Amino acid sequence: MELRHLRYFVAVAEELSFTRAAERLHIGQPPLSQQIQALEHEVGAQLFDRNKRRVLLTEAGKLFLADARRVLALSEQAKETARRAHRGEAGELRVGFTFSTPFTPLFAKVVRRYRQQYPGVLLTFHEMATLPQLAKLEARELDLGFVRSVSDAIPDTVTLTPLRHDPLRLVLPADSPLAQQATVMVKDLEGYPFVVFPKDAGTGIHPQIFRLCRAAGFTPQIAMEAGEASTIIGLVAAGCGISVLPSSFEGIHMEGVVYRPLADAAATTSLLLARRTEGGGPLADAFVTLAESAAAED
Asked: What pLDDT is stored for residue 90 in this prediction?
């Protein structure tokens, strides 16, 4: 059974005339009659009670008409959904983001605008570190990812679009001698215990801390590790050590903690939008375009 058979049937049912239905469909009456007979044979029921003077729907035909209209309506809906998806107006977009991303005003601006402009697209968000996001993009389990700059080689299958640069902030106990300084050099951190993300967490900040410290002539002393930035800040407040985090985390206000700028020029991190190099289709294209526009405003 093809959709055209249902269209032929609906036309005859609404016109109750093979002649008028054939004119409406722009086909000949004999072929239309043959198609209806073939449909009845396939269905296994007589759909029309017809003679030379009249055409009427049988009880089976009346019930079949309701279902045929629903099927045709669904087919039109399916075509429109496909068209909207092709235009980037419908479908699902899977977006990853790092732990610091929601604290960045740009993220909220991009998501809000995208929802306003493309209300038919389902956005699903997945919080994870940078390296796991890149792996998910390669595996086609994510469409886009808000990631931080990393020292690891980026796969050829992934393209990064820079959105903004954020300074790094030194996270200190409020009673630390370093808290008395307006800015701090990385070399001044030698000998202080650090609280950091685990090495295998896949964050960009962990290796960056080591790079900054080694460039300053020392290896950081790791006192504790924690998987959440809020936990790291809480451990700093408890006097377990100091830490270095993207400036966006300054939005987490905790008693006993202060943030200080690092004066070193290399003490910055980039927020980037990652996508598959081959592209993720019109939905991803629209999101990237909107993100680039919002980033240019900032």
From this structure: 60
pTM: 0.69
Taking only the tens place, the pLDDT of each residue in 262-279 is 999 999 999 999 999 987
- Report the candidate in 52, 56, 46, 43 with the shortest Cα–Cα distance to residue 12: 56
* Helices 3-15 and 18-25: angle between axes, nearest 10 degrees: 130
Q: What is the mean pLDDT of the chain?
A: 92
Averaged pLDDT for residues 43-54:
90
Q: Which of 6, 158, 132, 26 is nearest to 70 (CA)?
A: 6
Rounded Cα distance between 253 and 189, Å, is 22
Contacts 24+ apart (CB under 8 A), 26-33: 32/8
Q: Which tokens hold the place of 29?
A: 């009456």
Q: CB of 225 within 8 A of CB of 196? A: yes
- Output phi, psi for 103, to 5 deg: -85, -5
Question: Distances from the Cα of 265 to the Cαs of 184, 203, 209, 261, in angstroms?
Answer: 12, 21, 13, 11
The Cα 252–Cα 220 span in angstroms is 24
Give the DSSP H or E segment for 92. Answer: strand 91-97
